[in-house]
Amino acid sequence: MQRFLNFFKSPRSISYVFTLGMLLFAIGISWSPALLSIAVMILSILILFQYDESKSSIGWNRNFLQNLDKLFQVPYLVCYLLFFGTCILSGLWSESLKDWYWFSRMLLPFLLLPFAFYFHGNLNRAQWYLILYVFVLSIFSFSISICIDYFRHFEAYNLDLLKGKPIINKISHIRFSMLIAINAILCFHLYVKSAGFRYRFEKYLALALFIYFFIFIHLISVKTGIAGMYLALCYYLVAEFKKQKIWHTLIPALGMILLIVLAFIFIPSLQNKFYYSIWQLGEWSRGKWILYSDLERLVSWQIGWELIKHDPFFGSGIGDLYQATKNTYLECYGFEQGKLPHNQFIFSWAFTGVFGLISLLGIIFYSVFQKSWRKNDLIMSIQVVLIFSFLFEYTLGTQMGCGMFVFISLASWAWMQFEGNSKTKTK
C-alpha cells in the first residue's frame, strides 16, 4: 500500500499513467473499440491533474487556464478543437439529435486528446520506443490470427475476393490495412536507421517484420492500404535519396520492386482482387455500378457533391447525414440505399459545412507544411498514408478511423516536440 501511495509522489507518475493510456491505445487500435474508449478516458482524466512540486505529489491542475492560453498559440492543436466544434455546432441545424450525439461522442478525442498531449505528452525516448514496439507487436499478433484464418478457409476467401468481399470481416478491413501500411513503414525505417540498435539482430528483425507486413498487406488485398503504402515508401525513399548515397536507397527500392512482382505472381488473393477490379471497369462501361464497392464509392462522391450544392456553407448537419444521403440518392437515382460520401473532404464539407472543411485542411496544413515535420521522413511518410485515405474513405467517420488518426497524428506531434526539445538541450 505504501508503494502505491509513493507512486503518486513521483514527478514522473503522470507520465507513467499517460504511457499506460498510450499503450492501451496501441494494443486496442486494431481490434477493440472498448480499449480505445478506456485509453481516451485515462488520457482525458489526466488533464485535470499536474505534479505539485510544493507538495511533492500529484494535485489538481491549477494552471489549467494559463496552459490553455498557451495551447491556443499552437495552430495545429487549435484546428483539432475547431474540427470538433464544427461537429457540435452542426447539431443546431440537425433534426436527428441521436445521430448527432453519436458522432459528437465518437469525435471526443479531437476535443480531449489535444489537451492531454499538450499537458502531459512530454515522454522520454524509452517510453516512446516502448509504445512503438507494443504497437508493432499488437498489429503483428492480430495479423497472425488473420493469416491462420485465411489459410484455413483458403478457397472460400479467394472466391469471396472475386465477388468483391473482403477477407477481414470482424473489423474494418480498410482501417486495418492502413495500420499494416504504417507498421511496414515503421519497420522499414527502423531497419534503415539501425545505428541506434543495441544488438545486431534487431536490425534484421525489423527487416523481417517489414517483409512480413509488406507481404501480408498484399495477402489481404485492400487497395487503400496497398496504394497508401506504395506512396509512403516512395516518399521515404526519395527523401532518403536526397540525403544519402544512391546505393543506400537504390538497393531497398529494387528489393521492394522484386517483392511487388513476386506478390502479383504468387499471391492468389491479390490476383483475384485485380481481376475483380478489371471486372468492375467493364460493368461501369455498361452503366452498372450497384453492389460494386469501388464503383459505389465513385458514385458516393457525386452524391456528396450534390449535398454540398444543397447547402455549401453550413452543410446538412452531422446528425442528418444518413437521412440527407438517402434523400439525395432518391432524388438522383430513385432509390434510398447507398454509401455515405467516401471522401473525407467531401464528407466534412457536406455535413459540417465550410468551417468543417477548413479546420480539416488546417490540421493537414500545420503538419505537412511545417519545416520540422518535413525534416522527419518517417513522420511525413505516415502522414502520406493517413491523408491518402481521405481521398477514398471518410476515415474520421468511424471510431476506429478517428482513433487511429488522432492517436498517430498527435503522437507524431508530441514526438516532434520531444525531438525539438532534445536538440535544444544538446546545443
Draw up the topology in text.
Elements: H1 2-7, H2 13-28, H3 33-45, E1 49-52, E2 57-60, H4 64-71, H5 75-89, H6 97-106, H7 108-120, H8 125-152, H9 154-162, H10 173-192, H11 200-220, H12 223-243, H13 246-266, H14 268-285, H15 293-310, H16 321-333, H17 344-368, H18 371-374, H19 377-392, H20 399-426
Antiparallel strand pairs: 1-2
Describe what this molecule looks like in 3D:
The protein contains 20 helices and two strands. The chain has 427 residues and is an all-alpha fold. Strands 1-2 form a two-stranded antiparallel ribbon. It is globular. 37% of the residues are buried.
Number of helices: 20
Helix content: over 70%
> Quick one: biggest sheet?
2 strands, antiparallel
Q: Tell me the total number of β-strands.
A: 2
Please tell me the overall pLDDT.
Answer: 88
Shape: globular
Runs in which pLDDT lies below 50 for 5 or more consecutive residues are: none
Order of helices and strands: HHHEEHHHHHHHHHHHHHHHHH
Radius of gyration: 23 Å
Provide the spatial order of strands within the biggest beta sheet: 1-2
Strand proportion: under 5%
Structural class: mainly alpha
User: What gap, in angstroms, lies between the N and C termini?
Assistant: 43 Å
